[in-house]
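Researcher: I'd like a candidate sequence for this fold, 424 residues long. If you have to choose between options at a position, lean toward the conservative one.
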């Protein structure tokens, strides 16, 4: 049997999942995305080429790999088309190896309009969404009036569902001069994509189960990160899907027996983009230094990411809710130039010291980090490919993280490129 792995973000997204999936895809047969949508931005750097993927699994860059987008994803068909064109422009042929679930809900232009209006209405409590229409599309899904991929192949049904949605969303749509509110235009634009999408639609659950029976090796690519999970993240400052391992099963239609290992991706420090609690946030020159050296600007929106020290309390939560067995630690090189590195071991909340996240994760807004200080290695680790060749202080930092979390390190990333990696 091939080994099947989940690759999941352990923090607030942007941990470097794209790099890890691309790298591990070399040894895999199948790569599948299970949740989220074009709010994700997964960067893959190969040679002098940089690819930022929003919807298409990061495995697509490796020639010949089969990629699936599952029912748990909310797919913006127009962004998807742009991404296909982008790949074609880069000389990557996806024909016959990229498949979509018929049950994938679509993100349509009116979802983006609603996302924008809702963010504005939230005022000072705005989430700082990516404006990709993610929340409104998931709302439609659970409200049972979402429009799914399969509806594209039945124009009468599509038109009927669009009209129904127009009624349900009349307060956003009726009388709006915004092009995104024009349902007839949306219908016409969708119809132009039907022939492109038709050959890609397959029973993803069936295909993955077949691949499993044939002993194929699979990678399940998570999007966002644990702390953005709609149930177990810092709600309401979260995304609208289950970003944790559980989302892999529901988002692809597979059973737990098809997962051999859960690899949590952990950035060597913390970042967050958008609003919401972030206990270890550094609003000082150290935070700015990390932002610049880590090039911490959103892959989807270009927004500067908030930066801070590693948060072990949040990571303990991530290891637990995902069932993480091994971790891939990324961006170690970004900390090369720090004489002192801090790690948050506990929080202080209302005068009490706590070792695990509080019952209500919204309380993270009041949690003060308790730090332990570690000496920095002050040496260049960029491109190091062997654990033993890392400075002793860098090894100590990595070992500290693994020991606290009770997991093994399977990989350390020392640069954005594929080969800048230590396989442990
Ligand atoms: P994802 O959303 O988890 O796939 O992560 P993003 O692609 O949004 O952000 C990670 C960023 O860090 C990208 O620009 C990557 O090219 C870059 N990156 C990944 N691993 C490393 C690393 O080990 N070192 C450095 N310096 N950059 C890295
Ligand atoms: P990847 O897969 C980092 C954040 C947004 C916002 C919140 C809700 O690249 O790690 P949404 O548009 O989903 O309604 O926004 O979630 N967010 C991400 N942050 N990486 C991501 O994806 C994210 N996807 C959403 O910034 O705070
Ligand atoms: Mg990203």
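Model: Candidate sequence:
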């Amino acid at each position: 049997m091939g080994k099947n792995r989940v690759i999941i973000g352990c923090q607030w997204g942007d941990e470097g999942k794209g790099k890890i999936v691309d790298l591990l895809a070399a040894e895999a047969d199948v790569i599948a995305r299970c949740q989220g949508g074009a709010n994700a931005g997964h960067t893959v750097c190969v040679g002098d080429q940089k690819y930022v993927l929003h919807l298409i699994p990061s495995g697509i860059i490796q020639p010949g790999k089969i990629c699936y987008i599952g029912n748990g994803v909310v797919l913006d068909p127009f962004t998807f088309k742009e991404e296909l064109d982008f790949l074609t422009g880069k000389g990557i042929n996806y024909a016959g190896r990229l498949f979509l679930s018929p049950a994938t809900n679509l993100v349509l232009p009116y979802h983006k309009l609603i996302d924008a209006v809702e963010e504005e209405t939230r005022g000072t409590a705005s989430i700082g969404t990516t404006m990709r229409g993610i929340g409104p599309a998931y709302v439609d899904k659970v409200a049972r009036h979402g429009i799914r991929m399969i509806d594209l192949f039945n124009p009468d049904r599509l038109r009927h569902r669009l009209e129904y949605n127009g009624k349900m969303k009349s307060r956003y749509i009726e009388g709006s001069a915004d092009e995104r509110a024009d349902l007839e235009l949306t219908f016409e634009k969708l119809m132009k994509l039907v022939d492109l999408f038709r050959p890609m639609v397959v029973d993803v659950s069936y295909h993955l189960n077949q691949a499993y029976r044939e002993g194929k090796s699979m990678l399940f690519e998570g999007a966002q990160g644990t702390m953005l999970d709609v149930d177990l993240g810092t709600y309401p400052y979260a995304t609208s899907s289950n970003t944790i391992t559980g989302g892999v099963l529901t988002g692809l239609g597979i059973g737990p027996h098809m997962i051999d290992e859960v690899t949590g991706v952990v950035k060597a420090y913390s970042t967050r983009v958008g609003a919401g609690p972030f206990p270890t946030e550094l609003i000082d020159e150290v935070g700015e230094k990390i932002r610049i050296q880590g090039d911490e600007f959103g892959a989807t929106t270009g927004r500067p990411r908030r930066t801070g020290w590693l948060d072990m309390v949040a990571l303990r939560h991530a290891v637990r809710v995902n069932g993480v067995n091994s971790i891939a630690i990324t961006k170690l090189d970004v900390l090369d130039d720090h004489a002192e590195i801090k790690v948050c071991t506990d929080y202080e909340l209302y005068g009490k010291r706590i070792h695990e996240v509080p019952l209500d994760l919204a309380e993270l807004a009041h949690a003060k980090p308790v730090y332990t200080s570690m000496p920095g290695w002050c040496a260049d680790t960029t491109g190091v490919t062997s654990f033993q060749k890392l400075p002793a202080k860098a090894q100590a930092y990595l070992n500290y993280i693994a020991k606290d979390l009770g997991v093994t390190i399977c990989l350390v990333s020392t640069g954005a490129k594929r080969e800048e990696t230590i396989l442990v």
